[in-house]
Amino acid sequence: MKQTIGLIGFGVVGQGVYELVSRRSDPGITIKKVCVRDRLKKRSLTPGKICYDLDEVLDDDEINLVVEVINDPDAACYIAEKALITGKSLVSANKKMVAERLPAFRKFLAGNGTAMLYEGSTCGSIPIIRNLEEYYSNDIFGSLSGILNGSANYILSRVFGDGMAYKEALSQAQLLGFAEADPRLDVSGEDTLSKLVILAVHSLGKWVDPSTVFCSGIQNLRPADIQYAASLGMKIRLTGNILRSGKGFSMFVIPWMMNRDNPLYHVENEYNAVVLEGEQCSRQVLTGKGAGRMPTATAVMSDIDARTSGYGYRYRKFLNGSGVEINGEKFLNIYLRTGSEEIIRSAGFVKKGDLRKSNGYYIFTGGISLSNLTRIRKQLDESGSFIALTGFDAGDD
Ligand SMILES: NC(=O)c1ccc[n+]([C@@H]2O[C@H](COP(=O)([O-])OP(=O)(O)OC[C@H]3O[C@@H](n4cnc5c(N)ncnc54)[C@H](OP(=O)(O)O)[C@@H]3O)[C@@H](O)[C@H]2O)c1
User: Fold this and answer.
1) Has residue 16 got a pLDDT over 60?
2) Are residues 242 and 136 in the same domain?
3) 88 and 224: one domain?
């Protein structure tokens, strides 16, 4: 199937996609128009190809595939909706849009021969979505944990590996093109959460509203936390988790203070990794670059190629109604650094461990339920406290 593409966005990822399509010089795949926003920016494109009006792409009957790689979530939703309604297929790298709007967008796909593919939205170059859809379609997963944000992992690698200051590491991640336009999404865990929601759809067949999932990031990480972890031979990784709890699953985003026995400990820089535990496949670790121009563009290119053979996700587990519940309770062992004694007292910690006080803050370890953690999340954020998962106690679900 010939693909006539309208490429919307010509930034880090868009330029990579353009380069890959140009290198290929395949008459079956052509970029007819490139839509951008800023008329004053200099571009390495023939002027006739550039346009500034989204509808010039979306109303073009010759274009049958819209590739959306912009950094504006509202415009991305407009593009996706109009493309799908007017019978064009869509390739997108926008995880926030996909995670939040997936059930609505799926309705537009029904029976009109179009598809929406978004491999580039999750874990950059790791072919995780199509593998979950196709290769693992018959397996039943017991857990999925991963480092899903290249920018946050790059920052953590620099502060742990090189002793670099957090802010400097974040600036470097931005310079290298790993960070989102709004880097708060990377460090707050929200970007990880969007990807986790997408992975839940394709691994367990269940969509969860992202606003209901516990999410804590690394924005409050301080040297004291790094020193604590390092003194125990541990590292901190920002992780997304879907773990078995009782008859269902619990889902959460959290920094994890882990030792070298955890495969995620060894994942450095902008690399991502997903650890899957399947009933049949057992433990599988998929790893690869999770951010940056070519790793992400490669995933987008793979979706473009997939459309040439008419591929679309089948959402087999999702449509079959997996019957899985993802709202389970889970008991987590936690490291907490806080200036607020009140949080320690009122949070509902059990199995209280270490409590130290130095330089005006407390360092505390204890066990807490996910529901109690969710209840105090705002307090933790607002008080500049930092929490990290340190492990689980068997049989506590
Ligand atoms: N960078 C990564 O490593 C990475 C990895 C995975 C996924 N992603 C995702 O890929 C997408 C693009 O990221 P990026 O890093 O390539 O962003 P970027 O470098 O900031 O580029 C964004 C591009 O979108 C264009 N744009 C923004 N709003 C527009 C609008 N309303 N109409 C037309 N064009 C518009 C901008 O136009 P101008 O050039 O005129 O400013 C720019 O070309 C995002 O959804 C991001 O989450 C990025």
Assistant:
1) yes
2) yes
3) no
Report CA(150)–ligand 1 centroid distance (Å).
Answer: 16
The rounded Å distance from CA 186 to ligand 1 centre is: 15
Of ligand 1's listed atoms, the one at least distance from the Cα of 37 is 40
Domain assignment of residue 396, yes or no: no
Q: Is the CB of 36 under 6 A from ligand 1?
A: yes
On whether both 138 and 200 belong to a single domain, the answer is yes
Q: Answer yes or no: do 44 and 184 share one domain.
A: no
Cα 274 to middle of ligand 1, angstroms? 25
Beta bridge mates, 29: 3
The Cα–Cα gap between 344 and 206 comes to: 34
Report whether residue 165 contacts ligand 1, using a CB cutoff of 6 Å: no
Would residue 397 count as lying in a domain? no
* Cα separation, 95 vs 198, whole angstroms: 8
In the chain, % of residues over pLDDT 70? 98
Confidence of residue 397 (pLDDT cuts 50, 70, 90): low
Residue 366 in 3-state DSSP?
Answer: strand
Nearest CA to ligand 1 atom 15: 12
For residue 208 and ligand 1, the question of a CB distance below 6 A is answered with no
DSSP string covering 321-350: T---------EEEEEEEES-HHHHHHS--B
Question: Are both 231 and 377 inside the same structural domain?
Answer: yes
- Where residue 157 sits, what CATH number does that domain have? 3.30.360.10
- pTM value? 0.96
289-300 pLDDT, tens digit each: 999 999 999 999
Does residue 195 carry a catalytic annotation?
yes
Could you tell me if 189 and 253 are in contact, meaning their C-beta atoms sit under 8 angstroms apart? yes
Q: Assess whether 203 and 312 both reside in one domain.
A: no
How many residues make up the chain in this entry? 397
Nearest to 141 by CA among 237, 255, 251, 239: 251
Tell me which of 33, 88, 96, 195 is the catalytic residue: 195
233 alpha carbon – ligand 1 mean position (Å): 38
